[in-house]
Amino acid sequence: MNNNRKSWVWQYANRVGNKAYCSLCSENENNEFCCNGGSTGSLGRHLATIHNIQPISDNSKPKRYVHTKF
User: Fold this and answer.
1) pLDDT tens-digit map of 14-69
2) Which of 4, 9, 54, 59 has the highest local Cβ count within 10 Å?
């Protein structure tokens, strides 16, 4: 399992094994999310719909392109 946490959602959650827990929710709320294989979709949707948090889009960074020679 890769421990590199590149997704924006990890600012708002803690991972324990294959589960992620929203740090903005109380323990009494439904704050457990599956993150098998490092997937963060369900946690991202939770942050967007419940907490109204969206990832910050940084358009100032140059896009990376892969150039191949034929």
Assistant:
1) 888 888 999 999 877 778 888 887 788 889 999 999 899 988 765 555 545 455 55
2) 9
- Strand 32-34 and strand 13-16: the pairing is unpaired
HSE-up (13 A, CA, CB side) for residue 29: 11
Distances in whole angstroms, Cα of residue 29 to Cα of each of 17, 32, 57: 20, 9, 29
Phi, psi of 50 (to 5 degrees): -85, -45
- Which pLDDT score, from 0 to 100, does residue 11 have? 92
Task: Using alpha carbons, select from 57, 56, 30 the residue that is nearest to residue 43.
Answer: 30
What is the amino acid identity at position 58?
A: D
**Any idea what the Cα angle at residue 26 is, between residues 35 and 18, rounded to 5°?**
15
Question: Are 55 and 6 contacting, i.e. CB atoms less than 8 angstroms apart?
Answer: no
